[in-house]
Amino acid sequence: MAGDRDGGGGAAGLLRRLVDVREGEVRALLYSSAFFFCVLWSYFLIKPVRETMGLRGRVDDLSWLYLGTLAGVLLLTPVYTLLVKKLPRRRFIPWVYRFFITNLIVFYLLERFVSAEEGVRTSLGYVFFVWLSIFNMFAVAVFRSLMVDIFTSEQGKRLFGFIGVGGTLGALMGSWVSGQLISLPFVGLGELMLISAVLLEASVWMFRGLLRNAPRQESGSVSTPDQEPIGLGGAFRAFSLVGRSPYMIGICLFMLCFTVTSTFVWFTRMNFVQGMADSEEEKLWIFSNIFLITQLLTLVTQIFFTGRIIKSFGVGATLSIIPIVTLAGFVALAISPILGVLIALESIRSATNYALARPAREVLFTVLTVEEKYKAKAFIDTFVYRGGDVIGALAFRLISWAAISLAGLASIVAVISLLWAALAAVLGRRQREMAGGGATTV
């Protein structure tokens, strides 16, 4: 019985008062949230490490690291696609995470025992910067693909907000713990990597619990995401799936608008921090606190607004919020170019993305086929995302070279944001049509 699976205790009843979760969904919801909690705790624990190690060289050099990240994504995507083709998900997903766990152990050993020579440390910082950017893409893409496969479009609208809260709590914990641990005399950047590896292993165990408690769909059958390979096709199958679908091309353009403007914010922040702090410990502490503020705002938004906004206003209107926030933030930064305004821009924008735009964007994928969810979605979440980073990095380098003021940058962002908001409305309308008509592709 579905009700038996969730148990009849008070905890399940309390959860149902907080979330519109139904019989047969409680355990899957909790395991999904715990899974995301562990993944983002692992990532945000070492995200400040990435920023700090990246600043071992010049800020101007970081634009080339985005090219390195894109190259890494291109090299690993065929391997990812081959694993998707050959392996059942119950094996594929642990393999992906344990590959990254092994990488973290290697980085710990290098950081802990490598020569203190400045050139070597700078190179190691650059390699880790690229690696963590790739790790973030694949680790989160795997999780999100699993979510839109296990849950239907209707379930996603009800439950993705709560699952996102689990991820936000993990990100909040990672940001806070990172800033606290770095002040201890026996904890350095390498030790944070090792702790991150342990947390990533914990996420694998949460994944296994999720498979044992997959939710029942309306037809009465139990979702079984672990039973079959995800689909056939070569390394370029994902590109083909995206290229033949105007709907997915629209999602790609939406992603590019987000990543390009995110890169503009990021480079501005890196320049501020480089000029403010000297030691790596000080820089890591600043980054940790910026991320902590962001996640606190995200958590408040998710708890009180995410589910209500998506259900009340729809996917398109929810997606339109982040272009508006981005435009308003850049205008404020142009008027008052100080660190406090920059932190407010990044925090509010990131909170809007994590709490509203991301859950709404995930709903866009729920109307796709299983193969599209894993292959095409992974292509968008990795290659397109990192491609947008490269475009944004090169554009910001050109803007800096041309000595364009913050007011000029705000004008560029205004044009992007208006087009971005219009695209959000179109995507939301098309998703509603596909969900209502039972279509699975375009």
Question: What layout of secondary structure does this protein have?
Answer:
Elements: H1 2-6, H2 10-18, H3 26-54, H4 62-86, H5 89-113, H6 118-150, H7 153-181, H8 189-212, H9 237-243, H10 246-276, H11 280-335, H12 339-365, H13 370-401, H14 406-437
Helix pairs in contact: 3-6, 3-7, 3-8, 3-11, 4-6, 4-13, 5-6, 5-8, 6-13, 7-11, 7-12, 9-13, 10-11, 10-12, 10-13, 10-14, 11-12, 11-14
Q: Quick gist of this model?
A:
The N terminus and C terminus are likely disordered. It is built from 14 helices and no strands. 82% of the residues lie in helices and 0% in strands.
CATH architecture: Up-down Bundle
- Our count of domains comes out at 1
Count, helices: 14
Order of helices and strands: HHHHHHHHHHHHHH
Low-confidence stretches: 1-5, 219-232, 438-442
Class computed from helices, strands and strand pairing: mainly alpha
Whole-number mean pLDDT: 81
Multimeric state: single chain
